[in-house]
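FORM 12-B: Structure-to-Sequence Request
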């Protein structure tokens, strides 16, 4: 376990060096957040029907996604780690006294923890401090529901682990593909749609919403976002957190199996 903690700590400290990147990413996410805010505000004003979320709830839901954007498994999928697996250079990792899956999982989790402590935190400061000062408080993010705060923190922690598990699973597909680009593109598209990042799941048609509620992608965004808003039925909270835990276990096990099978069939220099 100490080896994995050391890996996590090393990557965390390494990514803390990229301060300019974190600042640029934070402002980029804020800009895209306003684009989504204005687009859906226009939709609300044009539609005559009663919407499943109020505008303040919608704003908080959208901003929550922008704050967590760098934590989701759609960011940072292309790296030297994936290239190591594709090229076979990963063989020298097998000489270390840690499991291959655990090695990559610890590194990915360290990267995502750095992102939430830098880029995400900076966005929170902008949303709660800067926007009200420049007269844009009507578009800002609402405060979290304090009654759900402990459960929200647990859900965000599970989100980080689940995102890291999905990210690591994509890496493990590199044993069977020429490049993980195809796998990562598929994960990007499916995650963006079924997590609620593109369109809140509350707006989905009933059949598609039921599918989205079953898939794991809801657990990395929609669940913590609803807890943040306090718009989730208290009777459903246990099921929502259980959904996160179950899918985390499933994807971790699936990734570990891929790693074991991949290393068993790995050939380096014809050997």
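FORM 12-B RESPONSE
SEQUENCE OUT:
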């Amino acid at each position: 376990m100490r080896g994995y903690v050391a890996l996590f700590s090393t990557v965390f400290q390494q990514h803390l060096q990229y301060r300019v990147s974190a600042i640029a990413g934070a402002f980029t996410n804020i800009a895209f957040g306003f684009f989504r805010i204005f687009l859906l505000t226009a939709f609300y004003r044009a539609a005559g029907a009663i919407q499943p979320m109020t505008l303040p709830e919608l704003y908080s839901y959208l901003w929550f996604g922008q704050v967590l954007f760098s934590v989701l498994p759609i960011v940072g999928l292309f790296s030297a780690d994936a290239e190591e697996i594709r090229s076979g250079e990963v063989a020298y990792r097998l000489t270390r006294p840690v499991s291959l899956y655990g090695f990559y999982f610890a590194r990915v989790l360290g990267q995502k923890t750095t992102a939430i402590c830098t880029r995400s935190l900076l966005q929170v400061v902008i949303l709660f401090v800067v926007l009200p000062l420049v007269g844009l408080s009507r578009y800002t993010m609402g405060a979290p529901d304090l009654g759900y705060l402990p459960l929200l923190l647990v859900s965000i922690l599970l989100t980080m682990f689940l995102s890291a598990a999905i990210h690591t699973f994509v890496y493990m597909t590199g044993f069977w593909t020429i490049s993980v680009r195809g796998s990562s593109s598929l994960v990007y598209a499916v995650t963006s749609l079924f997590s609620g990042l593109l369109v809140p799941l509350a707006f989905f048609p009933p059949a598609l919403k039921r599918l989205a509620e079953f898939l794991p992608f809801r657990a990395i965004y929609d669940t913590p976002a609803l807890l943040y808003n306090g718009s989730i039925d208290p009777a459903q909270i246990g099921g929502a957190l259980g959904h996160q835990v179950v899918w985390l276990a499933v994807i971790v096990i699936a990734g570990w199996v891929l790693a074991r099978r991949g290393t068993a069939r790995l050939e380096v220099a014809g050997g």
